Amino acid sequence: MINLKTNTLSLRNKLNNKDIIKPFSNERLFLFLINTIIQMNYILFDGPYRENLLPFTYTKPVADLRIGILTIREKWELFLKTTTTTVTEDYLSEKYPMVELDHNVMINASVLPSKDLVDQIKNLKQNQSIYYNDELIAFFSMSDVDNIDFEEFDKINLNDEPILIKNTWDIFSKNGIALQCDYDKLTEGRTSLPIPNSVDVINPEQIFIEEGATLNFVTINASKGPVYIGKNSEIMEGSIIRGPLALCEGAILKLGTKIYGPTTVGPYSKIGGEVNNSVISGYSNKGHDGFLGNSVIGEWCNLGADTNTSNLKNNYAEVRLWDYESGRFAKTGLQFCGLMMGDHSKCAINTMFNTGTVVGVCANIFGSGFPRNFVPSFSWGGSQGFTTYLTPKAFEVAKIVMSRRNIEFTKQDEFILTTVFKQTEAYRKS
User: Which residue ranges form the domains of the chain, and what is each CATH number?
Assistant: First the structure.
């Protein structure tokens, strides 16, 4: 028997509840209903690595993590040519619902799609499952998916190892592979906007510019990997880019920004200074000078001017990161690893982060010196110590920040963050 997430959730009995479909836009709901009538119903489940991917999965399912150009969900929907829903934690399920129908293909959300894997999934028959070694990749069931007895399933083994996102550091360490795959898929059969004459380029064949993007008097070297410049994005003068780079829709590189790939700048994020092999999720800012390396930054984060991260220990030793499951620091196998910062966290000017620092959700960091290597969610302070960042104040800031991008801080968002506050209380007392 198997559970698909930490606390399994079945929505079969709730399908008559109109609240289930609220998170869908009218267009998305229409597409979903059409697709489920004429195609298989695909569901992405969190799987066994959700806790390994905290703090990022405190606020969203595994499927909605960004790596490469797209989120994992967007990758699967692009390959499958249909919408998906999600099996995730109960407190996330209103914002990220699952719709279970009669014919369901369940896919491990930690797995990134490929053409061959998608072909195998589309050819699944009832009570068939796909594994790579002992790793469950996908299965097709017409029964209740909460508890499945895989002894009754025909097992299909993958020959080629899939790309799996098992740990937080996989998001930046595997970003180059994911970015290349996304680039190939998104640009297939399409023509880029012309590169402006003022732009110095190496290997222009690996540069793709979407509609509405602006760039002038910048240098782009795509010899080490592709450079994707998203819709309505901007690269300001004097910026120097060595790919691979994903500059997503509406994102901005400010004057004189230096980028070493593979790096992702998520939608509507603003970046300045120096960035190396990092993934910045949507709506986050590092607008000024300072170094960010081998790091993952969540959504709605802000790094103050001259914030710097260390990505290499002085003794060149293996980096350890805080492990939420064990409650201690664990080996990563990496020599280079910087900052992991959860959604809605912020730091003041001149903040210094030591190698392998983990910051939770809704933390506010300020003051001189290095804060400790693990900053729990809803912490307020710095190297001199922390107090609790109370939810009314945190929510007030979130509302202001999100409203500046014309996005509402909803009751769903408030409920999710309130739940995270309660779940992380023990860390703030330690």
Answer: 12-166 (3.90.550), 171-429 (2.160.10.10)
Question: Cβ(280)–Cβ(66) under 8 Å?
Answer: no
Residues 70 and 21: their CA atoms lie apart, in Å, by: 23
- How many whole angstroms separate alpha carbon 4 and alpha carbon 27? 29
What would the two tokens of residue 145 be? 């998916």
Peptide bond into 244 cis (omega under 30): yes
Query: How many C-beta atoms surround the C-beta of residue 290 within 10 A?
Result: 21
Q: Where are the beta strands (DSSP E) in 269-401?
A: 270-271, 274-276, 279-280, 285-286, 291-293, 296-297, 302-303, 308-309, 320-323, 328-331, 339-341, 346-347, 352-353, 357-359, 364-365, 374-375, 379-382, 385-388
Confidence class for position 13, pLDDT limits 50, 70, 90: very low
pTM for this structure?
0.90
For the cut 60, the answer to whether the pLDDT of residue 32 exceeds it is no
Q: Is the pLDDT of residue 362 over 70?
A: yes
